[in-house]
Design brief:
The protein is an alpha+beta fold. The chain has 13 helices and 19 strands. It has 4 domains: 125 residues, ATPase, nucleotide binding domain (Nucleotidyltransferase, domain 5, 2-Layer Sandwich); 34 residues, no CATH class; 95 residues, Nucleotidyltransferase, domain 5; 70 residues, Alpha-Beta Complex (Actin, Chain A, domain 4), CATH 3.90.640. It has a 6-stranded mixed sheet, with helices on both faces. A 5-stranded mixed sheet has the order 13-12-11-17-18, sandwiched between helices. Helix 11 links the parallel strand 17 and strand 18. The longest helix is centred in the middle third of the chain and has 16 residues. The radius of gyration is 21 Å and the shape is flat.
């Protein structure tokens, strides 16, 4: 009972600072924020002024007048705009954190496994500037594996593929450490771009990334049974400039995503090839666990299973694996020391 009461007043936060979405977990409360990583900024004579953050700002993407910009401050899983990221973090922390407490929050943030020292410093500094008292960083595949409930401290292979908006993280974990890992700058955003570019090239139809994302979510990677299905797409005709409705087969969507999906599958194979034989043997039975928003793309698990000949399972609630895993680490001091990246 005491621990429960303590949890209610705790100021510890776990943050999954993603390219597409930011999720925040508060110790004792669970996930309290899940909003798009988008900031709407108005430019005037006095500089930049933040108008909206999260869902409200995402609704403005592609629809703003000249003096207002809807910005995604993270690109490919890392900070592209330091100042705007800081403002976004401040907004989210203020929104979820009980400001009556005088103690500055202890924060753990998920970062890509391929992050550089410079990028790590930028994440830490953004968090401190946004009001953190202490900042820990955890590699996203490690956090995702913990959040997916994998036994990461045991001497056996745990393979996780975390497909986010900007990056895909592939890792084999054993004894609370990453044995082999690969970080790809390919994620949901690249798939959206691939769909938009394919439709533009083949049909002279311009569609926004929001519509491309909707197509990806609704149709995914078509399986042989549904390849004859068609769907309507609305966009702007590049020749006439007139808004147009086009009907295409769902198989076209699969073709559009072929290149980035192939790159992901090849990277999974490369990680498997460099995994020590003792751990590789474990994976024949345990297989691969998919996490992140990309895990929900229809048919992706089937393609990975066919290409690797290994069992492939989708984590329960894959979208929240990283933030839940980071949250669990906050509760266990011994694990916190083992799995977080040391500050340099």
């Amino acid at each position: 009972m005491f621990n429960y009461i303590l949890g209610l007043f705790s100021n510890d936060l776990a943050i999954d600072l993603g390219t597409a979405s930011t999720l925040i977990y508060v110790k004792g409360k669970g996930i309290v924020t899940n909003e798009p990583s988008v900031v709407a900024v108005k430019k005037d004579g006095k500089g930049k002024r933040v108008l909206a953050v999260g869902k409200e700002a995402k609704a403005m993407l592609g629809k703003t007048p000249g003096n207002i910009a809807a910005i995604r401050p993270l690109k490919d899983g890392v900070i592209a705009d330091f100042e705007i990221t800081e403002e976004m973090l401040k907004y989210f922390i203020t929104k979820v954190h009980n400001r009556r407490l005088l103690v500055r929050p202890r924060i753990i943030i998920g970062v890509p496994s391929g992050i550089t020292q410079v990028e790590m410093r930028a994440v830490r500094e953004s968090a401190y500037s946004a009001g953190a008292g202490e900042v820990f960083l955890i590699e996203e595949p490690m956090a995702a594996a913990i959040g997916a409930g994998l036994p990461i401290t045991e001497p056996s292979a745990n393979m996780i593929v975390d497909i986010g908006g900007g990056t895909s993280e592939i890792a084999v974990i054993s004894l609370a450490g990453i044995v082999v890992a690969k970080s790809l700058r390919i994620g949901g955003d690249k798939l959206d771009e691939a769909i938009a570019q394919h439709i533009k090239r083949k049909y002279n139809l311009s569609i926004g990334t929001g519509i491309a994302e909707k197509i990806k979510i609704e149709r995914g990677l078509s399986l042989p049974d549904d390849e004859d299905e068609t769907m309507e797409i609305k966009g702007s005709n590049l020749v006439t400039g007139i808004p147009t409705t086009l009907e295409i087969s769902v198989n076209e969507i699969k073709k559009a995503m072929t290149e980035p999906i192939n790159a992901l599958v090849e990277s999974i194979k490369q990680v498997l090839e460099t995994t020590p034989p003792e751990l590789a043997a474990d994976m024949v039975d345990k297989g691969i666990v998919l996490a992140g928003g990309g895990a929900l793309i229809k048919g992706l698990d089937v393609i990975i299973r066919e290409e690797t000949k290994l069992p492939v399972t989708i984590a329960e609630d894959p979208l929240t694996c990283v933030v839940k895993g980071a949250g669990k680490v906050l509760d266990e001091i011994k694990l916190l020391r083992e799995v977080t990246i040391p500050a340099k």
